[in-house]
C-alpha cells in the first residue's frame, strides 16, 4: 500500500498491510524562516517515510500579526512562547481586526507549505497546522481572557468572530497552496479550564464554523485535543476524519475512544515518557499495546503532541519498527 491507501483503509476499518504511523516535531528558531522550515519538513519525511506529514510552523504564528511577540526559550518540545501579549486589558479585544492572510506571519506559513507540497507531489497526506479560534485568543492574551470570558463575553465574542474569519481564510488558502486538510488544534477543551457550557459557547461554536467552511474542500482533517481531562464527548462528533489526544496521559484510553469516534484515532505514544526515557523494547511494547486495543484497526500510531526536540533517532526507529512488525489480531472495532 502507498501512504494514501494505508490511511484511507485504516479510516474505514479495513485491512492494511501495516498500521499507519506518523510522528512530528518542531524545528525551533529555524521555523521562523520559510526556506529552513521547508528543508526540515522534506528531510524529516525523506528520512522516515511517515504516512502523514503534519506541517510544523511555530505555535505562535497565529497571534504575531495582531501584535503579540514570541520567542523560543528552550522548551523541551521546541515550542515558542508569547512573551508580550497583544491583549492585556479588556478594551484590547477591540484591536483584533481582520488580517490579510497572505501577508505577515500567516502568509509565510502557507508560502512555506506550498513549497513543501510542490516537492512532496501529493504522494503523502499533508496537513497545515491551524489553531482553534479560542486557542488563538488565549495565546494572544493573558490569563485575563478567562475573566473576560465570564465578565465581558460580548467583547471576547466580537474578537472571536474576527479570529474565526481569519482562521477560515488561512485554512482555505492552505488548501489552495497544496494542503489536503488541516491539523486543527484546540487547547481549551479541558474540564480543568472551562465548563462544558463555556466551551460550547466560546469554543465549539467557532470550531464548527471552521469545519463547515472546509466541508467538501479538504480531503482529510485531524482534530487535536490538547491537555488533560479533555472534553472528549463534546469533541467526538466534530466532522473530522482523525482524532489525536494525549491518550497515555489522560482519559479516554484508545479502546474507550474507539467506541465513540468512528474513524481514525491517532496516538499510542507517550512522547515525554516512554519515548524519551524508555528502552527500545519498552517503546515497541507501548506501540504494540496501543494497537492491540483496537486489534490494529482504525489507529494511526502517533504522539500525544509534538515530539521533544531531543528525541533520539533510535527511539523514533523503534516506533516505526514496532508499527511495521505488528500483526493484526482478529478483533475489529
Structure description:
- The chain has about 325 residues and is α/β, with parallel strands linked by helices.
- It has one domain (about 5-325): TIM Barrel.
- It is about 45% helix and about 10% strand.
- The protein has 13 helices and nine strands.
- The chain has helices at about 5-10, 35-50, 60-65, 105-120, 135-140, 145-150, 155-175, 195-215, 230-235, 255-260, 275, 280-290, 315-325; strands at about 55, 70, 80-85, 125-130, 180-185, 220-225, 240-245, 265-270, 300-305.
- The strands form two sheets. It has a seven-stranded parallel beta sheet.
- Helix 2 (about 35-50) packs parallel to helix 4 (about 105-120), helix 5 packs across helix 7 and helix 7 packs parallel to helix 8.
- The longest helix is centred in the middle third of the chain and has 24 residues, at about 155-175.
- The model has no long low-confidence stretch (mean pLDDT about 95).
- This is Uroporphyrinogen decarboxylase.
- It holds the Pfam family URO-D.
Anisotropy-based shape:
globular
- Gap from first CA to last CA: 21 Å
Radius of gyration: 19 Å
As laid out across the biggest beta sheet, the strand order is 1-4-5-6-7-8-9
Q: Helix tally? A: 13
Average the pLDDT over all residues and give the rounded result.
Answer: 97
CATH topology: TIM Barrel
CATH hierarchy: architecture? Alpha-Beta Barrel
Residues in helix, %: 40-55%
Protein name: Uroporphyrinogen decarboxylase
InterPro entries: Methanogen_methyltrans (IPR052024), UROD/MetE-like_sf (IPR038071), Uroporphyrinogen_deCOase (IPR000257)
Pfam families: URO-D
Organism: Acidovorax bellezanensis
Amino acid at each position: 500500500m502507498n501512504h494514501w491507501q494505508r490511511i484511507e483503509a485504516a479510516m474505514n476499518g479495513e485491512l492494511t498491510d501495516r498500521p499507519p504511523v506518523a510522528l512530528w516535531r518542531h524545528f525551533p528558531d529555524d521555523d521562523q524562516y520559510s526556506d529552513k522550515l521547508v528543508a526540515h519538513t522534506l528531510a524529516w519525511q525523506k528520512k522516515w517515510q511517515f504516512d502523514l506529514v503534519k506541517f510544523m510552523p511555530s505555535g505562535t504564528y497565529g497571534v504575531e500579526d495582531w501584535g503579540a511577540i514570541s520567542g523560543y526559550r528552550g522548551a523541551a518540545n521546541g515550542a515558542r512562547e508569547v512573551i508580550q501579549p497583544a491583549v492585556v486589558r479588556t478594551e484590547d479585544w477591540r484591536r483584533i481586526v481582520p488580517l490579510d492572510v497572505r501577508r505577515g506571519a500567516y502568509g509565510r506559513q502557507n508560502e512555506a507549505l506550498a513549497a513543501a507540497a510542490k516537492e512532496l507531489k501529493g504522494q503523502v497526506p499533508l496537513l497545515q497546522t491551524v489553531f482553534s479560534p479560542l486557542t488563538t485568543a488565549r495565546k494572544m492574551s493573558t490569563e485575563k481572557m478567562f475573566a473576560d470570558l465570564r465578565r465581558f463575553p460580548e467583547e471576547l465574542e466580537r474578537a472571536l468572530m474576527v479570529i474565526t474569519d481569519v482562521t477560515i481564510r488561512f485554512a482555505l488558502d492552505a488548501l489552495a497552496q497544496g494542503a489536503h486538510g488541516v491539523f486543527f488544534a484546540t487547547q481549551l477543551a479541558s474540564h480543568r479550564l472551562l465548563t462544558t457550557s463555556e466551551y460550547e459557547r466560546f469554543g465549539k461554536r467557532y470550531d464548527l464554523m471552521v469545519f463547515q467552511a472546509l466541508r467538501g474542500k479538504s480531503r482529510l482533517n485531524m482534530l487535536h485535543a490538547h491537555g488533560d481531562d479533555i472534553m472528549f464527548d463534546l469533541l467526538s462528533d466534530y466532522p473530522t476524519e482523525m482524532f489525536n489526544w494525549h491518550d497515555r496521559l489522560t482519559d479516554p484510553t484508545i479502546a474507550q475512544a474507539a467506541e465513540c469516534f468512528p474513524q481514525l484515532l491517532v496516538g499510542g505514544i507517550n512522547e515525554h515518557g516512554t519515548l524519551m526515557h524508555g528502552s527500545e523494547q519498552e517503546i515497541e511494547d507501548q506501540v504494540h499495546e496501543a494497537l492491540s486495543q483496537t486489534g490494529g484497526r482504525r489507529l494511526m500510531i502517533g504522539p500525544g503532541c509534538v515530539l521533544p526536540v531531543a528525541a533520539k533517532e533510535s527511539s523514533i526507529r523503534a516506533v516505526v519498527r514496532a508499527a511495521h512488525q505488528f500483526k493484526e489480531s482478529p478483533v475489529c472495532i
